[in-house]
Amino acid sequence: MKDAQNEYIVVKAKSQGVQVIGLTRGQDTKFHHTEKLDKGEVLIAQFTDHTSAIKIRGKATVMTKHGVIDTED
To answer: Where would I find the Tryptophan RNA-binding attenuator protein domain in this sequence (predicted)?
Structure first.
């Protein structure tokens, strides 16, 4: 898991109320953390021993080492 801990994403909200949700590792995937961003706010998130996935709801730009992704309207 050490390599996963070096993975970061940047989420920039393009509208009000963008949700960034951390999902757990293990047999059962569960929500463990939620942030709500206002338009223009930026969140830097890191994958950890507890976070295996990050779900984004709303209009946002997501930046990773793999590229830049814009969510759909």
So the answer is: 5-72
